[in-house]
Design goal:
The chain is built from twelve helices and five strands. By secondary structure, it is mainly α. The strands form two sheets. It has a three-stranded antiparallel β-sheet with strand order 1-2-3. The protein has a two-stranded antiparallel ribbon with strand order 4-5.
Length: 279
């Protein structure tokens, strides 16, 4: 039993290509780019059938076995989910992502460090609270917290459990106890995952213009997979020949999302307005 558990952990620890600090920096930049993107349309995204974090977990999870490879051992997969949860919270106007100016050597070296601020500490009354928001809203530093450190503090795999327990409550997956006490979540209702896969195929293979939700989700999936030795979130859902055609489109859409920024001053005005409304 001991060696079986060790083998399970080792098999899932060999998928990341970057060190934790690099992952924290990388996903902090990704979250900032998506949040500030002109394609991040919160009102449209909220009309999607699933949230970013639910879609992410459905594409990550093996529907037959219920496994999430790397849930406790792969920083990139964990960071991708934290990014998805932050975007869900941003859509609900609970947090904003900004950049704080940092400097060294008397101002000779200057750079902008991504940060997250809670603008409305009201609980969401959803799985997002247990997954991340309760901890974030209860922190002593609710404003201007380093986004990189937030990722570094959440490489524990716990967020995935709360997302999947919510999917279990919706009857989409069921809960089983697996090896070493790890919960597994095999799929019961494959409709939401099938719809996600169909949308991905339409966009990546059939040249269908993606909506705001799908564009931002694709940017998240592409970046996460780029930090793995082998794609875990997109490639398994395509035939090999199809994926070869889909990958360049995937990368192109991700670049569109990340290169099309709304001015940060506009986001800061929204942040201040939200704070005033909750005072």
């Amino acid at each position: 039993f001991f060696f079986a558990c060790c083998g399970y952990v080792m098999a899932n620890s060999l998928v990341c290509v970057a060190a934790p600090a690099e992952i924290g920096q990388s996903f902090a930049a990704l979250t900032t780019d998506i949040f500030h993107s002109a394609h991040f349309d919160k009102n449209h995204i909220l009309r999607a059938h699933v949230s970013f974090s639910q879609a992410y977990c459905l594409l990550w999870q093996d529907p037959d076995t219920g496994d999430l490879d790397g849930r406790r051992s792969c920083g990139a997969l964990q960071a991708g989910l934290i990014c998805a949860i932050l975007l869900d919270l941003a859509c609900l106007d609970r947090v904003v992502i900004t950049s704080q100016e940092k400097q060294m050597l008397g101002g000779l070296m200057k750079w902008k460090a991504p940060s997250v601020s809670v603008v409305d500490p009201t609980p969401t009354s959803s799985y997002l609270d247990e997954a991340l928001f309760t901890k974030l809203a209860g922190s002593k530093k609710r404003t201007g917290r380093s986004l990189e450190s937030l990722f570094m503090d959440n490489f524990d795999g716990r967020a995935a459990k709360h997302v999947l327990l919510e999917l279990a409550q919706q009857g989409i997956v069921r809960v089983e106890r697996g090896l070493c006490g790890m919960k597994k979540f095999p799929t019961i209702d494959r409709t939401p995952e099938a719809e996600l896969k169909a949308s991905l195929r339409e966009v990546l293979l059939d040249d269908v213009e993606p909506d705001s939700f799908m564009m931002c989700l694709i940017a998240l999936l592409e970046h996460t997979d780029a930090n793995l030795f082998s794609s875990r979130l997109t490639k398994p859902h395509f035939e090999p020949a199809d994926y070869a055609n889909a990958k360049p489109v995937l990368q192109k859409i991700a670049q569109r999302v990340r290169s099309c920024w709304v001015e940060e001053e506009e986001c800061e005005m929204v942040s201040l307005a939200a704070q005033d409304a909750n005072m």
